[in-house]
Specification:
143 residues, 4-stranded antiparallel β-sheet, alpha+beta, elongated
Length: 143
């Protein structure tokens, strides 16, 4: 009986130590992003992407996203679906890269719209992620 109590105590202590260890930054960032991109937050990001890259479009939604830990940073792919002026369905895929210290870049990876986003829109998209989304992520992470 005493032996079992020592084993149980050991497991509980080990569990407490594991829980007390800080989460790696990239994992904390990934989990925070998931919370940000689910539900209304993802729709807001999708609408911003669509408004910047294709201002005549409508009905933007975040269809999917992929978050990867790459080196010392995070790489995110956002798949934004939206409707064109004549009702045609489109998908714009955005790649966003950042690390703990800074936003690195945000750019359109692919787009099946009849007209590509302009150079000005590409700069505005990068600015949106740098000046609006990255600071919110850092704030939500408690940094």
């Amino acid at each position: 009986m005493r032996r079992l109590s020592v084993v149980v105590l050991g497991v509980l202590l080990t569990s407490a130590i594991v829980k007390a260890q800080p989460q790696p930054w990239h994992e904390h960032a990934r989990l925070t992003l998931i919370r940000m991109l689910q539900g209304p937050g993802g729709v807001t990001v999708a609408q911003s992407v669509q408004r910047i890259t294709h201002p005549t479009g409508s009905d933007a939604n975040l269809q999917n996203y992929d978050i990867q830990h790459v080196g010392d940073g995070i790489s995110v792919k956002l798949y934004v679906t939206w409707s064109g002026g004549l009702g045609a369905a489109h998908t714009t895929t955005v790649a966003w890269d950042f690390d703990r210290r800074r936003h690195r870049s945000a750019a359109v990876l692919s787009d099946n719209a009849a007209f590509a986003a302009s150079e000005k829109a590409a700069r505005q998209l990068d600015t949106y992620f740098r000046d609006e989304l990255y600071p919110v992520l850092r704030q939500n992470m408690g940094e």
